[in-house]
Amino acid sequence: MNERKKLVLHIGQHKTGSKFLQTFLALNGRNLNSHGILYPTTLNYQEVSAYRNSHFNLYALLRKEIIESCSVNASDDLFWTEHGQYAAQLKSISELFGFIEMESLRINAHTIVMSSEDIFDMHTAHELDFSLDLVKRAAIMLLEYSKEFKWDPIIVIYLRRPDYLLNAHYAQFIKGKSSNTIEFNEFHTKFSPRLDALKILDIWGSVFDKSQLKVRPYDDTPHRTEIVSDFFYDVLNLNLDDAWISVPQELEYLNITPDPEYTDLIRQINHGSKILAGLVSREDLLRLAFEKRSNHALSSFLSETLVSSLIDKYDNDYKLIAEKFMHRKKFFIKPWIAQTQINEHKTCLSTLDKFFITLKSIRLKL
Which end of the chain is more exposed for a tag (fewer CB within 10 A), N or C? Predict the structure, then answer.
């Protein structure tokens, strides 16, 4: 009797090096195949690498099928209109998984790897609505489909410090969609439910057996290359060598978190600043931010007081996550402390950068 295939499903969180990992997996499809592993991308007919290299189509189909079974909120009616294009004309998860099963048989794969960071909390980085019911329904649906295709699922989740996650998510929210204009404090209030990693993890743990969940601390492996190594060694049981293709260090493949100055300037352009839009484009600002990016821990919208309050609020939660899902006492190996250098930017600013910061400091009312 043939052994059952494994389905390794990497589901997030957002802002934990997912795009880099997905790009590495996509670039190394043949190497993976030689080890009996399939990372399917043949159905992803997208020009944008974020959709071409990931399995956003699985996330989109999950939301679609949940909406069809029981709409969760009013905004769901618009979801498929906006995101259906990324499913590459697929009508259902059964259809998607059916194509993947055929491909796995063709190469004689024993393991299928899929990755979509939106699945962990079942919302994109550009949304502020949040529903735990969506998470529960998605987990149940994925388990049922795994059983239908006789795949043994392993759910891989990287978690990030709540303060780093909040800062990075805000920057992603502003830079990712030109209609997003809210300031950080309002974003923090609306985004807060998605910082509750324990509550979301408990839902996944209530549907899947805890042995099927692999929870990993992102901030103990802060470099993208280390995320890839961690995933390959701890999840796939593979070691990397020079035969594997490296990810180009280019903006297209690195989903960077811009420093606050750049994020706020992008927000002002989103808000309709004609002066800024006439001087520089959003794309130009992102390129500048990429060139001048600094350490994410030292460049943040969060005050030291807010960081301390997040530590107080979530410290025990992460201890419980470590005990329940990782069988260890501490989640973060490195101490979780408030940074004393928050908002002190060490980058060497060009004349153009200084001009932008001057614009920000006089708080243009446009």
Answer: N
- pLDDT one-digit tens code per residue, 50-81: 888 999 999 999 999 998 887 555 556 678 88
Contact 338, 308 (CB under 8 A): yes
Strands (E), the chain: 5-10, 37-38, 111-115, 151-159, 213-217
Q: Could you please report the per-residue DSSP string of 216-272? A: EEGGGS-SHHHHHHHIIIIIS-----TTSPPPP-STTT------HHHHHHHHHHHHT
Length of the chain: 366
Distance CA 86, CA 340 (A): 42
- Helix 282-292 with 351-361: angle, nearest 10 deg: 110
- CA atoms of 357 and 10, how far apart (whole Å): 38
Indicate whether 224 pLDDT > 80.
Answer: no
Which tokens belong to 66? 């949940």
Strands of 151-159's sheet in order across = 37-38, 111-115, 5-10, 151-159, 213-217
Domains of the chain, CATH where assigned: 5-235 (3.40.50), 260-361 (no CATH)
